[in-house]
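<tokenise_the_fold>
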Amino acid sequence: MEMTARNSHPETKADDRNRDGPVNSNGDTTEITVSLSHPGKRLSPIESGNLYRLRDRKFLLEDKRRLCAWGLGTAVLGILLMILHAELCPVVYLPDSVYAISINGLISVSTGCLLILIIAFHYKDVQLFIIDHNQVDWRIAMTSNRVLGISMELLVCAIHPVGTYLAPGANPPAVDMPAVDAEAPGAETPMDANSTSTPLCLCSSPMEAWLEAELLLSGLMFLRLYLVHRAILLHSKVLLSASYRSIGSLNNIKFTFRFVLKVLMNKYPARTLLVFIMFFWLSAAWMLRLCERQLQVVTGDMGIALWLIAITFLTVGYGDVSPKTSCGKVVCLFTGVMGVACTAMLVAVVTKKLALNKGEKHVHFFMMDIQISKELRNAAANVLRECWLLHRATRARDGRGEHRHHQRSLLEAIRVFRHLRLKQRKLRDYTSEMVDLSKMQMIMCDLSASWSNSYRDLEQRIISMEQKLAELGQSFQSTSELLSQALHQRHLQHRCRPDPGPRTSFVFLSQI
């Protein structure tokens, strides 16, 4: 948006009569025109100037948020297509059918769209860097770390299974392999690892390298889910709130995904853990089934895979089922590590939920203190009673057995009394430690208030003393002036009169 002000010449006065605007005394009309940009067209930071930097920054943040959401949706779509293709290819359609090629084409198209969205996102990020650093050269933003990060993201997002395009041309006679095996005498129904159906569309390929590559590419597609943390960060209320950003900038807090995750774990701990555990459970079980299905073992079933992942995640390990392939063992190992970490977080969350808050602690410890005080009074009364009974047994001298019994009772009463005293002392120490901070804060607030009041009183007293000293100085000055005037008049009167005798001078001096 651009604002221009111009003065029209006298010859254009007739054309300017219908224009709204102030008219000068010379007949010139000052016209203010506002040229609007085209809808959807945004000015660059250099054209807009410093006045529109905040507006452009807001637009760039919205674009980044939108691009991140589209990228995450595209990544999830590609993963779902891969799972659908892996489940339907060996059962519903053949590897070289048009359905397999169509679904793999859709996976490749979604991968290309995802790469374009990633590049557009980083382009907006570089523009945001330029605005934040006041219109510097864009090549300054392309540091080695940024270039490495963009390259890694593009590499991760470009991974998808491509063996379907190469399988039909590489192994044309692969479809006849089951017939050859069926003609062999004594052929059994379950097949070994080299002739069984493989997890993805290379089920008829005898090349083990292609099988492992296809399996690896399919599993690595889950790495695209790193976009979840970016989407959570850009769509969180922490980043969208201006108050959060202002207070965070004053306290040197960087709004990263770790900070947002801490906020979510603090506000919604159970919900966050439940969503993460369920998603990890399902994805790890499917990956285990994908790894184990090539050997036709029992863990290739989805129900058994869910059971194995659950007992591995909970670190139980009954031993009834176990992975057979190297890929399955890696998945179970990673599941065990994540299970230990999630168990620790779950214990922390449960402990926080079961812990008493400040008010509940005060009520609980207050009631415990009352109960212990009652027990302490009863214990003191028991000590006095046993002392009296021992004294009476000693005075009566009935027998040594009763005397020893009262002595043991007295020692037991003293032990109970000391134990209760120690318990009460520990309870009060813990209670005092719990309220020390609040008490200290209240004491410091009272002290600061009293100091401020005394300081204000002292200031007022000093000001009043200064005023009194100024008044006293003025009174001294006026008194000295009056004395000087009186002495001067007396001196003039003394000089104007004739010289009196000794008695008269004495009387005059005494009067003065």
Observations:
- Residues 1-41, 43-48, 168-206, 504-509 have pLDDT under 50 and may be disordered.
